[in-house]
Amino acid sequence: MSIVDGFSDTSQLTAKGAARPDVRIVHLGLGAFFRAHGASYLADLGGWGVLGVSLRSPAVRDALVPQDCLYTAAELTPDGIKPRQIEVLRDVLVAPENPQAVIDAIANPNVCIVSLTVTEKGYCHDPASGRLNMSHPDIVRDLTQDHPRSAIGYLVRGLQARRQAGAAPLTIMSCDNLPDNGALTRRVVLRLAQEIAPDAVDWITANCTFPSAMVDRIVPATTSTDIETLNTLVGQWDAAPVMHEPFRQWVIENEFAGDRPVFEDVDVQLVDDILPFELMKLRMLNGAHSALAYLGYLSGHNTVSEAAADPVLATYLRHLWRREIAPTLIAPPDTDLDHYAATLLERFANPAIQHKTYQIAMDGSQKLPQRLLGTILDRLNNGQDADALLLGVAGWMRFTGGIDEAGTPFDVQDPLAPALRAAQSTDPAATVRNLLAMGEIFDASCAARIEPVLVRLYKGLSDHGARHMMSALTR
Question: How many CB atoms lie within 10 A of CB 63?
């Protein structure tokens, strides 16, 4: 690989710009995505420091704090690597080590926004209904403890403390791949507040906004090889770099409770109606990503770029977008869906991005409702078939069996993994039926409508393999 606009040689990361900004944003879930996406916009703006919160592991804190929370964001292009030093993070808290510090940070009057990238499962909701799962282990614990475990629990306790301190209103902004994620966040926060902080419910309703946001940038997991390669190339030691594609997009519902960054200055789109943007991205990018991950992984493709370079899978994706997904959408302003699809395929095929199909395939029970099932239901309600979409669902069902087409076993990582294992049967029809009976994922009426087609497609995947089924479907 080559470097584009590389750094001068130095032994360690040091701040390069003016005085670093004070903390104005608390971010829950300080993973690679936020550091490669949202933080890059804030770095362009300046003036908005971020306090990151790790909700589980100290690993990110332990890597970032010794280097003063500086890190490299490496843009991966077919022509080489373009590194950039990001300086917006001011500190990192590990919630289990000091839960009160997280609560105090949310209550801090200088903080205007709390943002989240906690993945779909971090909302502790039932994906099929969108309601808070009161039997979720983290929620059960939060119902009885003052110091929470879930992201939703931290929000509730932080907002309760903010009300008690008489602090200013607050914007709570989800940046996860969930439809109408702002409304979902508001719903689960208020539901939990009714149980553990009833004194704060009216204050939250009157003083907090929950704008929905659509975020887009492909950010593969950083590997030890990535770290070694990047550090060798740039001549700096960085224990916590992030890798990302050139493309980025951020669309936010224009509903803020107080002060906010001037997002417009860095091409963030502030809109009154975010639904067309959300559905386009969730269905065309995330839906296709999931279908490609399951079918690609089963057929032996380890990365998205490798799968997208397979003519059979590329043809399947074009068919999926053109014939089944795009007709369910209203294009956002100034957007051509055919061009958007072509851009997606180009992004998927970027050989510099080693995005693992297995990584995307994780937590499928949390992703299917918004990525594939909603589109399927729209098509069925309009009297249209959805075989290409259902092939993606059948691919997920085969994936839950934990064995690829070469007979190699693998670990299925999913919050519902025990139930998924219990659903497996030597009878393909029984496996499909058992999985469709999981009400956390499938609405019963929808399940009954799609079962016959899913049984046929699942049997086809079992007997003939993913590439054969995709070829047969797109002839």
Answer: 17
